[in-house]
Amino acid sequence: MHSMGRGAAVLGIAILTALPAIAGGAWKEAAAKSMVDEGIRLLEQKGAEEMIRTVNQRKKPFSDGEFYLFVIGPENRIVAHGFDGSRIGLAASDLYDHENQPYGQLMVKLADEKGRWIPYKQFNPLSKRVEPKRSWIKRANGYIFGCGVYGE
After folding, report:
1. Are 72 and 108 in contact (CB under 8 A)?
2. For residue range 115-151, what is the model confidence (pLDDT) as tens digits?
3. Which residues of 53-65 are buried (b: 16+ CB within 10 A; e: fewer)?
4. For 14-26, how does the pLDDT look when each residue is reduced to its tens digit (9 = 90+)?
5. Contact 74/142 with Cβ under 8 angstroms?
6. Phi, psi for residue 59 in degrees, rounded to 5
7. What are the percentages of helix, strand and coil residues in the chain, rounded to 5?
8. Could you give the 3-state DSSP secondary structure of residue 72?
9. CA–CA gap between residue 37 and residue 26 (Å, rounded)
10. Stated pTM of the model
């Protein structure tokens, strides 16, 4: 009986130790989805020109640490980027990750109004390392909105 109690305690500690990682991942995913939805709301309320201008200011609410919004326009080119203005104008078909995977083509092909995750490897501006990344992408009014989450 005593050893069962110890086993349950060890299991409980293992679960409690894992909770912050699980909660952290869920929080990041929720933050990415929220940023995408906020970008779509801005487009719907203020129009494309205002949305693009605001995102390209590269400050909150569309740039916050490792979270930043990016927008691919109707011509399948990046029209707004909350972190790196040098990416504006790049064709989605030219976007490859650090393992030579064409993630931009996947975004254009798979983006829909419901939203989905696209995995790839990208430079993390906070850690300064190439890391696994998943971007939540969603299509709205001819634009593709995305925000990524770094880590496994």
Report:
1. yes
2. 999 999 998 888 999 999 999 999 999 999 999 999 8
3. ebbbebeeebbee
4. 333 333 444 457 9
5. yes
6. -145, 175
7. 45, 30, 30
8. strand
9. 16
10. 0.83
